[in-house]
């Protein structure tokens, strides 16, 4: 992910080095030895927390999924590509650190245009996060114009997000457990022509509030339409903490990136995922 973290680290290094030089110039000040001055980053060692207690997690209805459909769509854990598995584990770790740093808990996943892999990224990130024993996740199909999460999972369900928004279902009717109690999926089967109006509706506000009140607290991942395809991401921006942008190598041109610059300036950019990269690392660990 390309982020501002590196810039912040560099500024921190520069400020710390300047303070050390100023201190060294004072009369009687001790000059740090080579070992001390080499430790530019002071790390606080974290003690691993005990696994979250599943007894406090709400039990949602089971989801019926098609493993063969998941294999065709390259959905975890059906993926046998070790490079892809490793990439999503790295993405999971970096996302968790960034969320913890900023105290964020919700992520909108979007692309520049159709076909860049934002839905698959949202699904696999949610699955990878839920494999962490301390992380609970909601995955929400919020691409109201072209819902695809259920298709990627080969998922059969009775009621989805559209039923909730139309007042035909409650929250417990539209959340489905996938693989473990730590991952709840809210699918959708109906496309809405006036999607941005539904995203700003009072019913949507009630839905977001219910997700945020869930105990244990969950990371909420929203699969959203492409950034430049409609005003949906802009309309929904006040409801999510951060945006994860998916770009596809050879597809997201400079003109598209320039067009998205103004939109991205109004949001907290969590990072950028480069999809379909030709550069791959197939080497073994040793």
Fold and architecture overview:
- This protein has two domains: 5-38; 55-275, 3-Layer(aba) Sandwich (Rossmann fold).
- It has an eight-stranded mixed β-sheet with strand order 1-4-5-3-6-2-7-8.
- The longest helix is centred in the N-terminal third of the chain and has 21 residues, at 5-25.
- The two termini are 25 Å apart.
- The protein is globular, with a radius of gyration of 22 Å.
- The chain is α/β, with parallel strands linked by helices and 286 residues long.
- It contains twelve helices and eight strands.
- Residues 2-13 and 31-41 have low confidence and may be disordered.
Please give a handful of descriptors for the protein shown.
Rossmann fold; eight-stranded mixed sheet; globular
Topology:
Layout: H1 5-25, H2 34-38, E1 61-62, H3 67-72, H4 82-102, E2 106-111, H5 118-130, E3 137-141, H6 149-153, H7 161-165, H8 171-174, E4 176-178, E5 180-186, H9 195-199, H10 202-212, E6 219-223, H11 232-236, E7 242-248, H12 254-264, E8 269-275
Parallel strand pairs: 1-4, 2-6, 2-7, 3-5, 3-6, 7-8
Antiparallel strand pairs: 4-5
Helix pairs in contact: 4-5
Number of helices: 12
Give the second-level CATH assignment, the architecture of the largest domain.
Answer: 3-Layer(aba) Sandwich
User: Gap between N and C termini, in Å?
Assistant: 25 Å
Here the CATH topology of the largest domain equals Rossmann fold
The CATH class of the largest domain is identified as Alpha Beta
Determine the mean pLDDT.
83
Largest sheet: 8 strands, mixed
Shape: globular
SSE order = HHEHHEHEHHHEEHHEHEHE
* Contiguous uncertain segments of 5+ residues: 2-13, 31-41
């Amino acid at each position: 992910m390309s982020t501002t973290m590196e810039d912040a680290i560099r500024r921190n290094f520069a400020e710390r080095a300047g303070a050390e030089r100023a201190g060294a110039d004072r009369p009687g000040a001790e000059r740090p030895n080579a070992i001390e001055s080499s430790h530019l980053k002071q790390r606080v060692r974290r003690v691993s927390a005990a696994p979250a207690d599943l007894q406090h997690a709400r039990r949602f209805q089971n989801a019926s999924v098609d493993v063969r459909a998941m294999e065709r769509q390259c959905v975890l854990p059906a993926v046998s590509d070790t490079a892809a598995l490793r990439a999503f584990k790295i993405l999971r770790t970096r996302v968790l650190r960034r969320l913890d740093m900023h105290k964020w808990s919700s992520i909108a996943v979007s692309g520049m245009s159709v076909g860049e892999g934002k839905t698959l990224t949202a699904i696999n990130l949610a699955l990878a996060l839920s494999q962490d024993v301390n992380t609970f996740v909601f995955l929400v199909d919020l691409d109201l114009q072209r819902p695809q999460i259920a298709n990627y999972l080969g998922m059969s369900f009775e009621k989805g997000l559209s039923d909730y928004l139309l007042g035909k279902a409650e929250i417990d009717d539209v959340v489905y457990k996938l693989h473990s109690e730590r991952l709840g999926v809210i699918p959708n089967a109906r496309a809405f022509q006036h999607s941005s109006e539904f995203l700003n509706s009072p019913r949507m506000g009630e839905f977001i509030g219910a997700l945020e009140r869930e105990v244990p607290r969950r990371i909420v991942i929203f699969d959203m339409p492409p950034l430049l395809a409609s005003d949906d991401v802009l309309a929904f921006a006040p409801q999510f903490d951060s945006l994860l942008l998916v770009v596809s190598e050879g597809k997201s041109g400079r003109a598209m990136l320039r067009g998205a610059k103004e939109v991205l300036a109004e949001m907290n950019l969590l990072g950028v995922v480069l999809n379909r990269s030709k550069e791959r690392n197939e080497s073994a660990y040793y």
